[in-house]
Write a structure and sequence with these properties.
Length: 392
């Protein structure tokens, strides 16, 4: 009962032949292949950024791939994808991101030494209208002067409501069975694990509970991390309530561990409470914000961050991978929550996959569609053949 994760923008921009998924017929053939070859019974459809109000930017001589791809389409993926999935025996889940609101295009001298990804993110950028209109919602450091662009502080009730309203509007009138909220972020990693999150509502709440101003005084760092985690749990609970009237299922995609981890910080990840309270239907573990799931290029290769109490990139503070997944299986046992293990970041390994799938409580594995559908770009280890550049 596996899941296929489809990053449609990557297919449209860099895929080849049927692997581009640029027509309903091509998509139909690949949906059947995902069903038959990957054992997929669900798909996560990662929509184009063009569906979210925002601004694309590009340096002279470049175009943003997602913006260009959206211009050539003459069919509605939100209508076609659920229909094709259901015809083939798959459930269809809309894939959205929470901590991935983008950033302004950096100056040329900064891009030369600090960039998202040289293959497709060094000279282009996108930023949501939400953070352009509310830059104060972006997480800030203790001084209030530096922000981690792309990451919104969930301490603002209005910000949580804005996300929920966005997702409900996207789902309205569609036949998607569920909403998959992924916690991956493409934002530049924080230099240290506790650098950001000091927004005014969180500061005020901590002061009310403990009598300490975290911006000016020493504080209990574990209590602080727990408070930041509470805001995420509140969002999940509010979203669950909002989806309930339509019967829409809810899944979350998380890194392994009990904190958000790179590139976001040491805020608590209270997934056990989500399971205990029945806030989610599926938990997808092993998300990786550092690596592109399609071509495996490293994001922000010159920035990694330090002082994470748990770090899935190097194993700090975490048990061995298979042992850890077994612990997740035990945690969800007896609950209605289905556990899935994300495998987009690893080479196919039948023995390991059988071992993971056999863990009690595990519903299946998650595979990325791009690598399965596009052996040409994968074998070349780049996608320059499909790279979109503006005309001179």
């Amino acid at each position: 009962m596996n899941i296929v994760s489809v990053s449609w923008g990557d297919h449209l921009s860099f895929g080849e032949a049927d692997g581009r998924l640029d027509t309903p017929d091509r998509l139909a053939r690949r949906v059947r292949a995902w069903h038959d070859e990957l054992g997929a019974r669900s798909l996560h459809w990662r929509m184009l950024r063009a569906r979210i109000p925002g601004t694309f930017e590009a340096a002279p001589g470049y175009r943003h791939p997602s913006e260009t791809a959206a211009r050539v389409l003459e069919w509605d993926d939100f209508a076609v994808v659920p229909a094709l999935a259901h015809e083939t025996g798959l459930s269809a889940w809309l894939y959205v991101s929470l901590f991935d609101e983008g950033w302004p295009l950096a100056p040329a001298d900064e891009r030369a030494i600090s960039y998202h990804n040289a293959m497709h993110g060094q000279h282009v950028a996108w930023q949501s209208e939400l953070t352009r209109s509310h830059p104060d919602w972006v997480v800030t450091d203790r001084t209030g002067r530096e922000r981690q662009w792309g990451v919104v502080s969930l301490s603002y009730p209005e910000a949580r409501r804005a996300f929920i309203d966005r997702w409900l509007a996207l789902l309205a009138g569609t036949k998607f069975d569920g909403l998959f909220v992924c916690l991956r972020s493409q934002s530049r990693p924080a230099d240290t694990g506790d650098r950001f999150g000091f927004n005014e509502p969180a500061r005020a709440e901590f002061a009310a509970r403990y009598g300490v101003d975290v911006a000016r005084e020493a504080f209990d760092v574990e209590a602080w991390r727990s408070l930041l985690g509470e805001y995420l749990t509140t969002l999940v609970a509010e979203l669950r309530d909002a989806l309930r009237p339509e019967g829409t299922l809810l899944a979350t995609g998380v890194p392994r561990g009990d904190i958000l981890g790179p590139p976001l910080g040491n805020a608590a990840l209270q997934w056990r409470e989500w399971v205990r309270r029945g806030l989610i239907d599926r938990l997808i573990v092993n998300q990786n914000s550092s690596q592109c799931p399609s071509m495996w290029h490293q994001l922000w290769p010159m920035h990694r961050g330090t002082e994470y109490v748990q770090n899935y990139l190097d194993g700090t503070g975490l048990p061995p991978f298979v042992d850890h997944m077994a612990a997740y299986g035990l945690a969800v046992a007896g609950s209605p929550v289905e556990l899935y293990v994300a495998r987009q970041w690893s080479e196919r390994d039948e023995a390991c996959e059988r071992q993971l799938a056999s863990i009690p409580g595990t519903g299946g594995l998650v595979f990325g569609s791009f690598r399965h559908d596009n052996p040409g770009p994968v074998s070349r280890s780049d996608w320059t053949a499909g790279r979109i550049r503006a005309e001179a």
